[in-house]
């Protein structure tokens, strides 16, 4: 597929794009800064400008395309965003994330693109950036868990899900939202996870879970290859927790009294990926326990 990929210069995108390219997709990176990825076409634009978004989605992507008419895109993957709170102001985070998502999905729908995948977030469940400690309503957290966040970043993601659902209802396109857990790059296992083993409480705000950036790319590929679901949201995580202690001990130390919705054993993730496995064939391959 020819894929219009926003945010490919970011932490997740730099790993997801090579996975998609290896799977045979032609990917054009759309960002404000270059990615540095080899053999990757790029257009540098402001996604908060609707005219630039429509222009980028309808023009040539590089010189080798000039001998024929601009080629349409088969799919849009929208990862670009202010990646968290406390980078700039809360209001600007909300503005950029909601406006850019509206612009990207609107342009895709108007151009008749039938597959749109966008990055939502674990933060929609409220736990990650809450003021003080907020425990989930139950564990493991699945897509039915309430999404009532306290912060502007997560608010923007909840709004983006509503935007995507509305565009899907009007267009009939397949629009899939990925509630992505804490993204970990391969080199970060050795750098970060020894501390998580020594002090599991460091992972409380991330629901004791994670997603390998390469497995996130695999999830995008699974979604590109799965048609006919309409609008869906998926948790995206690896199969195991991000701490050394067993899941039963995590429950005893951090979630005492929190209902356990699905039986958990070993080091099972607290951020359920069962829906992604069932509906799109997600099968994560990487894990920190192989690296640390």
TrEMBL record:
The chain positions of domain NAD-dependent epimerase/dehydratase read 5-221
Q: Name one Pfam family in it.
A: Epimerase
Concerning InterPro entries, the annotation shows: Epimerase_deHydtase, NAD(P)-bd_dom_sf
Domain of life (superkingdom): Bacteria
PANTHER family xrefs = NUCLEOSIDE-DIPHOSPHATE-SUGAR EPIMERASE (PTHR43103), PUTATIVE-RELATED (PTHR43103:SF6)
What name does UniProt use for this protein? Nucleoside-diphosphate-sugar epimerase
